[in-house]
Amino acid sequence: MAGQRDTQEAWDRVKRRLRAELGEDVFSSWFGRLELVSIVEGVAHLSVPTRFLKSWIESHYIDRLRLRVSEEMPAVTNVHLAVRSAIQRPAQRPAETPAPSKPRLVEKPSLPAMESRAVSTDQEGLAGSPLDRRLTFASFLVGRSNALAHAAAERVARHEPGQTPLYNPLYIHSSVGLGKTHLLHAIGHEVIGSGRRVIYLTADRFMYGFVAALKAQTALAFKERLRGIDLLIIDDVQFLQGKSIQQEFCHTINALIDAGRQIVIAADRAPSDLESLDERVRSRLAGGLAVEIGGLDEALRAQIIEARIAAARQHQPSFEVSPAVVAYVARAIATNGRDLDGAVNRLLAHSTLSQTPLTIDAAEAAIRDLVRSREPKKVKIEDIQKLVATHFNVSRADILSSRRSASVVKPRQIAMYLSKVLTLRSLPEIGRRFGGRDHTTVLHAVRKIETAVQADTTLRDDVELLKRMLQE
Predict the structure, then answer these.
(1) Structural contact between residues 181 and 266, judged by C-beta atoms closer than 8 angstroms
(2) Residues 6+ apart with CB under 8 A from 199
(3) Can you tell me the distance from the alpha carbon of 135 to that of 133, in angstroms, rounded to the nearest whole number?
(4) pLDDT tens digit sequence for 275-311
(5) Is a pLDDT exceeding 50 seen at residue 88?
(6) What's the CA gap between 409 and 403, in Å, rounded?
(7) What is the pLDDT of residues 339-388, one digit of tens each?
(8) pTM here?
């Protein structure tokens, strides 16, 4: 048991080092789903969910990965990367190329009453990810934070065929678990119901399809099939990587928009903040309607909890939760819908296994791990730039510009200082995010603000206020 714990701790150190070296965006894109399976005869066996991730890591990061693993695990001399679907089939040798893993269906509640059912969007041979039958407009709960996104999604889905799309592309962005994928699936169901051709893809799936077509020398057919549909839905577009893939993505959406076809896209940030994407792609995405889904307010969280309880009660009729407990959970868990699903699962387990009433004290004990496990908010450099710009009444473009006036230099230096203090970005990376500045400029700004806050109480209060606002 101790050996397993030591191995897991070493693997956690490997991931922390990779995150610090590569930055949060790169780490999340390529290493976020990398898992350690076992260590056998000096070889660390690692797994990822898709062939595309395996190929990319082997092509770009395998030497770095091997080095970091061997540094933290001296007994390991090599690493072997496999696709998880291959690991689950013992009859298949690791060296063989497995079939692509089934695309994940995001925002899927795990309650027993919510069986996983999907409908394929593969019409006329174009392989897309399946749509979840549960994620419809009827099952989407509307509140203040998502009303605009919901209205725009309904308008797009119910647009009359043959007319020029009103919002093209429709771009929905939010943090995880707030409902953007639910809206994508709901749009897909509505459009399929009207007899039109739809394909839903995650960014991973789009990249895999394009790379596979290039290898098979069927890229032209891939492009033509993709452009022959009525609605293209792309999820998690922030993970789109590679110059050639981004170029093809841009060509595809241009061709579809020019042909009057609808595009719906989702990501975890606004188009202007997708700094890993080519400027032409960002410009095209921003050219339609971009709507944000905000955090769930307490009333909407309570509605979600009640809906999940009602679904669970179909399988457990005795499952009862008082309004007071619902209100407590809605106050205690203010993160996202997935955590609310987890909370209802825990309440259900407590109710069915302990056979005791669900009091507030019992509910507090049942969801304690969810409340305690909240990690500090991950602060993004673009969020720092926006907040500092607003606070000092300048624009984000001013902060990124070469202007040297005192009204701009001070906010810029404060933003650089906060980026160093609140993120894991290196000085060169911070400099690149601030208009391509040299790392020495960032270091100068950090040292200047560190010195200034010691002597200037007003500045110190401003910086502390900005820190609190960014971390809340």
Answers:
(1) yes
(2) 121, 122, 123, 126, 128, 226, 229, 231, 232, 233
(3) 6
(4) 777 788 888 888 889 999 988 888 899 999 999 998 8
(5) no
(6) 8
(7) 898 889 888 888 888 777 888 888 888 888 777 555 556 788 999 999 99
(8) 0.56
157's tokens: 């889905």
Domains of the chain: 2-87 (3.30.300.180), 118-292 (3.40.50.300), 298-372 (1.10.8), 381-471 (1.10.1750.10)
Q: What is the DSSP letter of 367?
A: T
**Rounded-to-integer distance, Cα 150 and Cα 141, Å:** 9
Q: 208: closest CA among 258, 164, 155, 245? A: 245
Alpha-carbon distance of 232 to 238, in angstroms, equals 16
| Region 264-277 average pLDDT | 85
Report how far apart the first and last C-alpha atoms of the chain are (Å, whole number): 38
Which residues are paired to 47 by β-bridges? Answer: 35, 82
The phi, psi pair for 63, rounded to 5°, reads: -65, -45
Tokens of 94: 């690791």
Question: Which residue do the tokens 């293209």 mark?
Answer: 232
* CA neighbours closer than 13 Å in the CB half-sphere of residue 280: 12
